[in-house]
Amino acid sequence: MFNNKTMLDRFSALETPFYFYDLDLLEQTLDAAKKAADKRGFHIHYALKANFNERILALIQSKGFGADCVSGNEVQKSIDMGFDASKITFAGVGKSDKEIIAALQHHIFAFNVESIQEMEVINDLAQRLGVTANVSLRINPNIDAHTHHYITTGLDENKFGVPNSELEKAASVLRGCEAVNLVGLHFHVGSQILDMNVFKSLCVKVNEWKNWFEERGTYIKVLNVGGGLGVDYKAPDENPIPDFEAYFDVFDKFLERNSKQEVHFELGRALVAQCGSLVSKVLYTKSGIKKHFLIVDAGMTELMRPALYQAYHKIERIGEDKGEVVLNYDVVGPICESSDCFGKEVELPRCQRGDLIAIRTAGAYGEVMASRYNLREEIRYVYSEV
Description:
alpha/beta
């Protein structure tokens, strides 16, 4: 995508670092996801935590997606951007009273409740406001997603959801909450999952717990199976759009439901990751006895993922490949931390001061995690037009 003179000419006039968003690719991705979901009657809520850039949110909202939020400000942002409140879910293990009250006042679709105590707090606040709160009970399914331990959410050792051992008590407390209406069950096992067997295992657990509630006289309208579908970080040009057909087909085949039950998804990374790249300029090259270093003007303040959980991103030099000697570089940033490294032993044509590089598949958990550490400037962004 970036190995051409056109990209180099366009970007050379811009101040780096910045995020480049390919809105055409984003629209193609959204259309593919929507088509695959609609044919099965599935509902998609976009996870704002992945990226809340306003141009991206506007395009997602225009396609009719709902919103999945994990803070009060994300709920408010969704409302401000025109998302229908009846399609907004509010998840997260630590919702404050202020956030809960604001969401209740917006009459959102549902709170994904993560503990018995949270359910009691929501009930109390809803009673004070004279409203009824729709909730989905998040159950921890104890499924290993076989992904990085920092982005695994469905094991007993994780902080998320109600553990199986407390479900009897949760069901009892629910019956006593007069201002709470149970509309569904919520599950989420982790992120960047590429093995479809993980989702098959999730379906088995969802079926078990849906039946458990229904055998006790509680009808479940919504089965919210979360998200977690991964993307191809190693070959973004070869696989720019995830296989939504295969993903949704797993749930269509293995999830037991009747014609009146709805299936909801909370997708973030799968929708936006490939449309974003971080563009940076080479400040210096440095060679030691064992290493070649490429020191660029972007750092962990602009893209935290590699430093946070050793995430891989493909790194390319922008411009035409003229057959230069290829070297292995450690690509590092200017931040005063040894963890400020985007990649080790990265094969690139010999680079020099002033060259531009692109760090690919950065549309999810990139711009949204940027910080002002070291008093860095706020990150900029540019777009391709749809």
